[in-house]
Amino acid sequence: MARDSCLARVTAGVAVGGAVGGAVGAVYGTYEAIRYKVPGLLKIRYIGQTTMGSAAIFGLFLGAGSLIHCGKSY
Fold first, then answer.
1. Residue 62's closest CA among 22, 20, 29, 25?
2. Helix ranges restricted to H, 1-74
3. Mind listing the pLDDT tens digit for each residue in 13-34?
4. Are 68 and 12 in contact (CB under 8 A)?
5. Contact 9/69 with Cβ under 8 angstroms?
6. Which of 22, 10, 12 is nearest to 57 (CA)?
7. Terminal CA-to-CA distance of the chain, rounded, Å?
8. Are the C-beta atoms of residues 2 and 43 closer than 8 Å to each other?
9. Which of 4, 16, 18, 33 is the most exposed place for a label (fewest CB within 10 A)?
10. For the whole model, what pTM was predicted?
């Protein structure tokens, strides 16, 4: 597979989006869990759900943006 292939670009976009989304989701989930006083071990579940959801959404959109950008030649 070529280094510049569209699949490689989309995969990299999804990976970077997932990493950024996971980091943002972890910070935001922690803030929300503390703010709304989520009890006990439910905090960990809440933070995990926020992290995974945010990572999935960021990854999806960055992957889609990479796919759209793949078709353009400059």
1. 20
2. 6-35, 42-70
3. 999 999 999 999 999 999 999 9
4. no
5. yes
6. 22
7. 21
8. no
9. 4
10. 0.86
In terms of Cβ atoms closer than 10 Å to its own Cβ (0-12, 13-18, 19+), residue 23 is middle
- In terms of Cβ atoms closer than 10 Å to its own Cβ (0-12, 13-18, 19+), residue 54 is buried
Query: In the numeric block, which tokens belong to residue 73?
Result: 């030649």
Q: Are 54 and 22 in contact (CB under 8 A)?
A: yes
Tokens of 18: 């997932």
Residues 29-63: pLDDT tens digits? 999 999 999 999 999 999 999 999 999 999 999 99
